[in-house]
Amino acid sequence: MAPVRVARAFRLSILAASAALALGGCMQTVGPVAVAQPRSDLDYMAYGQPAGPQPVAVVDNSGGGAIGALRNSFAAAPAPVDVGYAAPMPVPVRYDASYHLDAGDKLRVVIYGQEGLTNTYAIDAGGAITMPLIGAVPARGRTTAGLASEIAARLRNGYIREPSVAVEIEAYRPFFILGEVAAPGQYPYVPNMTVESAVAIAGGFSPRAKRDVVTVTRSDAGGAMRAVVPLGTPLGPGDTVYVGERWF
Questions:
Q1: How far is CA 155 from CA 113, 132, 158, in A?
Q2: Domain range list for the chain
Q3: Strands 128-131 and 135-138, bridge-based pairing
Q4: Which of 3, 55, 90, 105 is deepest in the core (most CB within 10 A)?
Q5: Per-residue DSSP letter, 205
């Protein structure tokens, strides 16, 4: 009887140990974990669709628990997209109908149906253009539309019953650049010019030039205005640019 009791006790201890091991294994096993990527409600309202791909469920059967689920969520997330933003293109500045004419501007005057009067006219030093039939017409300080109206009024006074007149600028009066540049002097004005492009037209700075700012003089009906400006400042027809000398 004693050997039978020993064998039975040994068998019970083995069964108890096996049960303990099984219970321990069940406690360490983690069930499937689903991880979904977040969805942006703002993107959905703005564009009518989610910002990224639909949520993907990642199942972790590796027994890694929460750490394994987190690792899988990073693996399933889409790679970040590098979005570049280009600087806005500058808008060209053109002289509109408010531009005031002055001596040196060259105009194309068109009188519809009157080829003998249609021609190119330059504004002289006195600020006028001289046309057949009507003679000198003051142009300084006027706009192209104002000058066209004046020409039409004079032609209507005993010459043409209902004249149709158009005036456009064929060439702007020149600008001047003086001081420490390679070739100072007078140059044709080009729309959208800046101080920097004026310096380039004059051959660039001299070795002694002050290169950060220049002095610009501008004349209008109210008189002359002078200011120290940076190189990116826009220029107008008839402006005078002076490049000073730097102190070493």
A1: 13, 10, 7
A2: 33-72, 106-171, 175-243
A3: antiparallel
A4: 105
A5: B
- Report the alpha-carbon distance of residue 235 to residue 114 in Å, rounded: 36
- The CATH class given to the 175-243 domain equals alpha beta
Q: Find how far residue 26's CA is from the centre of its chain.
A: 65
pLDDT in tens, 82-140: 333 333 323 333 445 678 999 999 999 999 999 989 999 999 999 999 999 999 999 99
CATH architecture, range 106-171: 2-Layer Sandwich (3.30)
DSSP β-bridge partners for residue 225: 218
**Helix H segments across 77-165?**
144-156
169 contacts 106 by C-beta, under 8 angstroms = yes
Which tens digit of pLDDT belongs to each residue from 14-35? 555 555 444 444 444 443 333 3
